[in-house]
Write a structure and sequence with these properties.
The protein is of the alpha+beta class and about 130 residues long. The protein has five helices and three strands. It has helices at about 5-15, 20-25, 35-45, 85-105, 110-115; strands at about 60-65, 70-80, 125. A three-stranded antiparallel β-sheet has the order 2-1-3. α1 (about 5-15) packs across α3 (about 35-45). The longest helix is centred in the C-terminal third of the chain and has 18 residues, at about 85-105. It is globular and about 45 Å long. InterPro entries: UCP034077. Keywords: Signal. This is TonB C-terminal domain-containing protein.
Length: about 130
């Protein structure tokens, strides 16, 4: 996988919604190696539990990981679409950061680690609307 396609794929693919069902196939902190962008998404989303009442809220993070799947620095929010309730907004953001914290270090394969090591990643987390799985 080319590094550029890995970054573009991650930027486009990481939205919790209809694809969140695939994350349920992978358990949180699964030791299975992550070898694709979709598997990376599944590994993080498997650890994410958006709080009730946050349907439609969105948060995009910016971060990098090392070849060994650990975080470089601190994640930074680059975009958010939240609601009017400050405490619910904080709970949503905390749930995303908690999912990332639980999922890391990611068990990345050698090829995936080489493709994404040190590159900026921009996953977007969107809580599914009520009634969607």
């Amino acid at each position: 996988m080319k590094p550029r396609s890995a970054i573009v794929g991650l930027a486009l693919a990481l939205v919790a919604g209809p694809d969140a069902a695939t994350s349920q196939e992978r358990g949180c902190r699964s030791p299975d190696p992550v070898d694709t962008i979709n598997e990376m998404f599944s590994a993080i989303v498997a650890c994410w539990e958006p709080p009730p009442g946050t349907a439609g809220m969105t948060l995009t993070l910016q971060f990098s990981i090392r070849r060994n799947g650990t975080l470089i620095g601190k994640p930074r929010a680059t975009y958010s679409r939240l609601g009017d309730d400050g405490s619910l907004n904080r709970a949503f953001v905390a749930s995303v950061l908690d999912a990332l914290n639980k999922a890391l270090p990611l068990p990345v394969s050698d090829s995936m680690g080489g493709a994404i090591a040190g590159r900026m990643l921009f996953p977007r987390f969107t809580a599914a609307s009520e009634g969607e799985s």
